[in-house]
């Protein structure tokens, strides 16, 4: 009888230990899931914050670019157009006064025509800078050809280009983005790279437009890119984002510069 009770006690102890063990396992599992979920959520929040910060930086750089562009247009208008219109205005008033000798009259008249002509040229130049007409009329390929020819003729840098992608693949606004990116890259190759050769290669494969630009200049350390004050590369980044693309810059001191953009 006593032996039976002893056995029953042992069974109860074993069952209780088992239950306790299962409970402990359950609690540990719960804690494990709770903390790993918390970690995942924390990581997601961190990622979202990084993304928001990145988007903010891009928007900031777009705003700065717009402001810079406005400032430049205002300066061009002020220096190039307003000053010339002032000269025309003054001289037209002289004609109105009627106190000029016939020779003076002819002189002032000629001057007005000459300055009007120069004002028209300036206005055309400002408009061309805002939107190159060749880009609007014939598209990106022709605009790059013209751009490259201008640089090649200047003998500062030799630009080679191979452009192959279906016409109308990019809407005009996106072609303008690619064109502005190309202008900035060439300017950087000359200004910083001291390069005498650069290559533009655009191809279309598996539904992707691959834009690559290389120069043979002095290169720079890409790791320091975030510390640079310039806006050029930041603008390129903003434009690539607007194009829904990705980009990668590869450069080393003494090894030239390369950027690949995939849209
Ligand atoms: N092709 C290149 N060769 C060598 N260094 C380059 C090249 N492109 C860019 N860099 C380096 O990267 C930096 C950042 O270029 P970015 O175009 O952003 O600015 P920036 O040209 O100095 O100024 P901004 O474009 O605003 O006039 C440059 O100051 C230069 O040090
Ligand atoms: Mg630049």
Automatic annotation (TrEMBL):
GO CC terms in record: membrane
Domain (Histidine kinase): residue spans on this chain: 76-263
Keywords, alphabetical: ATP-binding, Kinase, Membrane, Nucleotide-binding, Phosphoprotein, Transferase, Transmembrane, Transmembrane helix, Two-component regulatory system
Cross-referenced InterPro entries: HATPase_C_sf (IPR036890), HATPase_dom (IPR003594), His_kinase_dom (IPR005467), Sensor_HK_TwoCompSys (IPR050482), Sig_transdc_His_kin_sub3_dim/P (IPR011712)
Keyword check for Isomerase: no
GO molecular function, one term: phosphorelay sensor kinase activity
EC number in record: 2.7.13.3
Top-level enzyme category: transferase
Transmembrane segments: 12-35
Membrane recorded as keyword: yes
Catalytic activity field: ATP + protein L-histidine = ADP + protein N-phospho-L-histidine
Protein name: histidine kinase
């Amino acid at each position: 009888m006593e032996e039976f009770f002893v056995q029953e006690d042992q069974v109860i102890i074993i069952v209780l230990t088992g239950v306790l063990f299962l409970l402990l396992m359950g609690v540990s599992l719960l804690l494990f899931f709770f903390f790993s979920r918390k970690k995942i959520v924390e990581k997601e929040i961190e990622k979202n914050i990084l993304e928001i910060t990145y988007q903010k930086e891009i928007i900031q750089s777009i705003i700065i670019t717009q402001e810079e562009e406005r400032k430049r247009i205002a300066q061009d208008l002020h220096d190039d157009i307003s000053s010339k219109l002032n000269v025309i205005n003054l001289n037209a008033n002289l004609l109105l006064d009627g106190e000029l000798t016939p020779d003076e009259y002819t002189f002032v008249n000629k001057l007005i025509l000459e300055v009007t002509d120069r004002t028209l040229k300036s206005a055309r130049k400002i408009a061309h800078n805002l939107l190159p007409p060749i880009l609007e009329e014939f598209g990106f390929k022709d605009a790059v050809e013209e751009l490259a020819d201008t640089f090649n003729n200047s003998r500062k840098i030799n630009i080679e280009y191979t452009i192959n992608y279906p016409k109308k693949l990019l809407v005009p606004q996106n072609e303008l983005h690619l064109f502005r990116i190309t202008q900035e890259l060439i300017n950087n190759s000359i200004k910083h790279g001291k390069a005498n050769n650069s290559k533009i290669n655009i191809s279309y494969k598996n539904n992707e437009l691959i834009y690559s630009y290389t120069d043979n200049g002095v290169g720079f350390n890409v790791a320091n890119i975030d510390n640079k004050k310039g806006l050029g590369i930041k603008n390129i980044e903003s434009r690539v984002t607007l194009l829904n693309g990705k980009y990668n810059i590869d450069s080393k001191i003494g090894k030239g510069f390369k950027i690949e953009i995939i849209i």
